[in-house]
Amino acid sequence: MRGFCVSRVLQIAVVCGLMACDRPDSPSAQQDDFNPALLEQTVPEFSTGDFQEVQNQQKTVRDTVGTLIVDRVDGIVKQILFRPAVLLSPEDFVNQYLPVTADNQVIKEPYLFRERLPICRQYYKGVPVEEGTWFFEYHDGLLDRVYGWFVPIDDLDVAPGVSDDNARKIVENYLKESVVGEDKRFYLSVMSFPVDGQLVPRLVYVYKYDIWENHEYVYVDAKTGRLLYHLRFHGDYPYY
Fold first, then answer.
1. CA 44 to CA 204: how far, in whole Å?
2. CB atoms within 10 A of CB 115
3. Residues 6 or more apart in contact with residue 90 via CB below 8 angstroms
4. Cα(170)–Cα(159) distance, rounded to whole angstroms?
5. Beta-bridge partner residues of 76
6. Contact indicator for 106, 168 with CB cutoff of 8 Å
7. DSSP-based three-state secondary structure for 169
8. pTM here?
9. Mean pLDDT in consecutive groups of 10 residues from the start of the chain, 240 residues
């Protein structure tokens, strides 16, 4: 199954929540002609079931290519197993195996996930992509397994139509609590949502609150101010 949907949302969302989410430089929010009715939203547009429905339609195809075992979903590489393991840096993997462009960059992060896994993260025109993260497993200095997701994005406008302040107000009115505080993050990002059975990238504001094993994420359309998705979970990556 495609690594996105519920599983990819949760795994990548947690990782993105740990990141500074400020490199490369992201576009500045524009001043918007704000509609106060957006503050009254009580029901998100999407539910977990909407993502699960798309996931259920997807199939993983495994091919053996020389010394590689490659898993693809919708033609996009999701995982590569190196048999035998190889001497290959994350940067070299990105350059050799991912369709990076001037707009779609995949950049190595300056820390290790769970103190052991190097990470590379996708940015589109400087905006972090929620599910666009790659994890690298090394044994004795050799690359054994790479898994993640590269989101194909073509000509997405990343200039927000709703200001950062107003997006925060939308989330605060919905949750009835402040989005500012320790363990709370709020940032601009790109995330894919179900449309006619396909996952389509959208520019969003993301609120994340992580404390111990409790997690709460809210996504707001950065163009329209529409409340898109609210996710709560406890523990470590349910559905993954």
1. 13
2. 6
3. 108, 118, 119, 120, 134, 136
4. 18
5. 73
6. no
7. helix
8. 0.83
9. 44 48 55 81 91 88 93 89 96 93 94 86 96 94 95 93 96 94 94 91 95 90 96 63
